[in-house]
Write a structure and sequence with these properties.
This protein has about 300 residues and is α/β, with parallel strands linked by helices. It is built from seven helices and twelve strands. The strands form three sheets. Strands 1, 2, 3, 6, 7, 8, 9 and 10 form an eight-stranded mixed β-sheet that branches. The chain has a two-stranded antiparallel ribbon with strand order 4-5. Strands 11-12 form a two-stranded antiparallel ribbon. It binds zinc ion (ZN) (2 copies).
């Protein structure tokens, strides 16, 4: 059995994405199988900001045969600081209820709100009910810090114990930057994302990556004064890697769907072997099998460990 590598690519698993992605355009609809699309906002665009589409792509690329439902909650709001794209708490709650009712197996929430409820607000309670009562696995981003306010903590519903809260980490390569075609490292010139980062597959010809990798918490993680992430996952998502216009995206929004995507693959593969773990067992396995990184107290997600724990 291969850890988390589903030969059926997610077939038989129902994935929900609460984000900015709504009714799929014809391209998406032809490529992937959609069960429901739920719309809680006023505009009628497929994805007004592209955020949900990126999150969706991270999960769908790994699991093209899964069934998807989208829950479009992110809309334009007028605030004191101008317009802001965000989801309201009531819409997020309703989307969780609807996802559970639709029979979603794995729900990704790369959105959330921060306030000091310590995991006990209405949003958190609804998420907990969906995990324990409706057997729906929920993976949520812990949020990104805002330079203006260092007190920003882990966002809800990631604060809740039943939800798998995902923060971010970076994999540095400890070798000096190797410029050139044969370098396995990656970096970006003139950007906040400097590197060199580990390419995970032989950065330099002489030594193994494992010996030259330094994994550290992402500096943009929120403060953990109210809750801690359950696991960390890679936080940089590169758009357009195969084109001339590379656009790095960074944030826990892109770490959470990596975990969701792996879990969909694991669940699919387990189902093929007649094993159907409950959502609570899945979140326990994710926690128990998480492995240390080089700095900090938060461990990283370990797909292979999670798989073995569930077998
Ligand atoms: Zn809360
Ligand atoms: Zn490397």
């Amino acid at each position: 059995l291969n850890a988390g590598v589903s030969q059926d690519h997610g077939a038989g698993v129902h994935v929900g994405v609460i984000d900015s992605l709504g009714e799929p355009d014809s391209d998406l609809a032809e490529t992937f199988s959609f069960d429901h699309t739920y719309d809680y906002v006023d505009h009628d665009q497929t994805d007004p900001i592209g955020h949900g589409r990126n999150v969706f792509d991270i999960i769908a690329t790994q699991n093209p045969n899964a069934t998807f439902s989208t829950f479009q909650i992110i809309d334009e709001h007028e605030t004191e600081d101008g317009t802001k794209w965000a989801g309201s708490r009531s819409d997020t709650i309703q989307a969780i209820v609807d996802a559970a009712e639709a029979g979603v197996d794995v729900l990704n929430i790369s959105a959330g709100t921060y306030h000091d409820c310590y995991g006990f607000c209405s949003l958190c309670r609804e998420a907990e009910l969906a995990v324990r009562g409706d057997d729906m696995t929920i993976v949520a981003a812990t949020g990104n810090s805002d330079n203006s306010n260092t007190r920003i903590g882990v966002h809800c519903p990631a604060t809740n114990d039943a939800v798998i809260g995902v923060g971010g980490y970076l994999s540095h390569c400890t070798e000096p930057l190797i410029r050139g075609e044969d370098s396995g490292q990656w970096w970006l010139d003139g950007d906040e994302i400097n590197g060199p980062f580990c390419g995970q597959n032989g950065c330099c010809s002489t030594e193994a990556c494992l010996d030259n990798r330094r994994e550290v918490p992402w500096p943009g993680n929120v403060s953990y004064h109210n809750a801690a992430p359950n696991v960390l996952a890679p936080v940089i998502y590169i758009l357009g890697a195969d084109t001339d216009s590379i656009q790095p995206q960074i944030g826990t929004s892109f770490a959470a769907p990596l975990v969701s995507g792996c879990l969909v693959g694991i669940i699919c593969e387990l189902q093929e072997h007649g094993i159907t773990p409950e959502a609570e067992e899945i979140s326990t396995s994710v926690r128990m099998s998480a492995t240390e990184i080089d700095e900090g107290d938060c461990p990283k997600f370990d797909a292979e460990g999670t798989w073995e724990h569930l077998c």
